């Protein structure tokens, strides 16, 4: 860089020796380079393997980080698509991904896609109880399932328990059609879908059949003590404080629990306090209890999802700051 002033004009020049990766790196009609220009407010010019980036010092540095990350990915044989460019942008803005956080499942390793996700994975690995709070699309549940599978594979736990409170959309199990399994399945389908991405389908079916993996609504947990298990309580914003206390006190010897949810998206009746919000006030600071908070910037689904979450968050902030709510 030519200056220490982060807002002053700056220029960086990169040279990529192996030009065979450039079509993958640049994208059709250089669309990946154009995306980086928009994201960071820089200009990117390429001639063969030589790339020049101009803009403010901070923006140039971020764009350079993103381009080097993408080139390394291309060299590793990965296809550079819009999702991969989004990963590069997040890496440049919010910190380098920790490759040591890769999760060893039965299929291809799961790699966290942001600094926040890497920190979350390490938090789960070291804590007996982890709360993950934040919007949809941040990987809270998916990564919890992945670490659970990793620990089962390494024989650190004997069972995986997947649970949700069955209150979505105000429905109750007794009013849904079908037998018990058919009633329960819609609530737990997202967790089972995650398992299918990490384990062969026949292994999932076999372990569900012999109850090494158990999927059940939260109400079914009452009265049990779960030893040597990895317990995931998903959509925990829909628990009451008493239900949350019941769930947390299921933790037995050699077990750990991950509680995930979005406190802003409760389906509880108006005026009913969320057990997740209640627990997040009471329990942080206790030994072996950790909290990972996610925001819209951590969303790793389509960019539109992050924009939607940000728009809702912005409106909520405006409403909370309105004099009418004072």
Features:
326 residues, alpha/beta, Ribosomal Protein S8, Chain: A, domain 1, Rossmann fold, 2 domains, six-stranded parallel β-sheet, three-stranded antiparallel β-sheet, 9 strands, globular
Number of helical elements? 11
User: Oligomeric form of this entry?
Assistant: single chain
Radius of gyration: 23 Å
Q: SSE order in H/E notation?
A: EHHEEHHHEHEHHEEHEHEH
Helix content: 40-55%
Strand order of the largest sheet: 6-5-7-8-4-9
Q: Strand content of the residues, in percent?
A: 15-25%
Gross morphology is globular
Q: Determine and state the CATH class of the largest domain.
A: Alpha Beta
> Largest sheet at a glance?
6 strands, parallel
C-alpha termini separation? 48 Å
Structure summary, number of beta strands = 9
Uncertain runs: none
Overall domain count: 2
Explained architecture:
The protein is an alpha/beta fold and 326 residues long. The protein folds into two domains: 9-94, Ribosomal Protein S8, Chain: A, domain 1, CATH 3.30.1370.10; 100-320, P-loop containing nucleotide triphosphate hydrolases (Rossmann fold), CATH 3.40.50.300. Helix content is 41%, strand content 16%. The strands form two sheets. Strands 6-5-7-8-4-9 form a six-stranded parallel sheet. The longest helix has 19 residues, at 57-75. The model has no long low-confidence stretch (mean pLDDT 85).
Topology:
Elements: E1 9-15, H1 22-26, H2 31-40, E2 43-47, E3 50-56, H3 57-75, H4 82-94, H5 115-126, E4 129-133, H6 140-153, E5 159-164, H7 180-196, H8 201-209, E6 213-217, E7 229-233, H9 241-248, E8 256-261, H10 275-282, E9 289-293, H11 303-321
Parallel strand pairs: 4-8, 4-9, 5-6, 5-7, 7-8
Antiparallel strand pairs: 1-3, 2-3
Helix pairs in contact: 3-4, 5-6, 9-10
């Amino acid at each position: 860089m030519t200056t220490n002033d982060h807002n002053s004009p700056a220029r960086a020049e990169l040279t990529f020796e192996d030009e065979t990766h450039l079509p993958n790196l640049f994208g059709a009609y250089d669309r990946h380079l154009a995306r980086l220009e928009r994201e960071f407010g820089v200009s990117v010019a390429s001639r063969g393997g030589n790339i020049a980036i101009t803009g403010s010092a901070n923006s140039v540095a971020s764009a350079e980080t993103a381009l080097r990350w993408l080139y390394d990915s291309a060299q590793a044989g990965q296809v550079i698509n819009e999702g991969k460019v989004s990963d590069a942008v997040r890496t440049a803005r919010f910190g380098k991904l920790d490759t040591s956080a890769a999760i060893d499942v039965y299929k291809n390793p799961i790699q966290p896609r942001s600094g926040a996700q890497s920190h979350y994975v390490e938090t789960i690995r070291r804590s007996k109880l982890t709360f993950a709070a934040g919007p949809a699309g941040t990987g809270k549940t998916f990564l919890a399932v992945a670490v659970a599978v990793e620990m089962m594979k390494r024989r650190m736990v004997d069972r995986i328990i997947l649970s949700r409170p069955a209150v979505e959309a105000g429905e109750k199990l007794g009013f849904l059609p079908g037998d018990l399994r058919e009633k329960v399945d819609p609530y737990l389908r997202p967790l089972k879908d995650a398992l299918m991405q990490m384990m062969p389908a026949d292994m999932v079916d076999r372990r569900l059949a012999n109850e090494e993996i158990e999927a059940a609504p939260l109400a079914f947990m009452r009265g049990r003590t779960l030893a040597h298990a990895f317990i995931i309580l998903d959509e925990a914003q829909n628990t009451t404080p008493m239900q949350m206390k019941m769930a947390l006190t299921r933790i037995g010897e050699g077990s750990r629990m991950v509680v995930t949810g979005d406190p802003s998206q409760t389906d509880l009746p108006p005026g009913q306090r969320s057990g997740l919000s209640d627990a997040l006030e009471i329990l942080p600071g206790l030994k072996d209890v950790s909290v990972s908070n996610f925001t819209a910037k951590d969303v790793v689904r389509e960019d539109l999802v992050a924009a939607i979450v940000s728009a809702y968050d912005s409106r909520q902030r405006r409403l909370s700051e309105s004099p009418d709510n004072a």
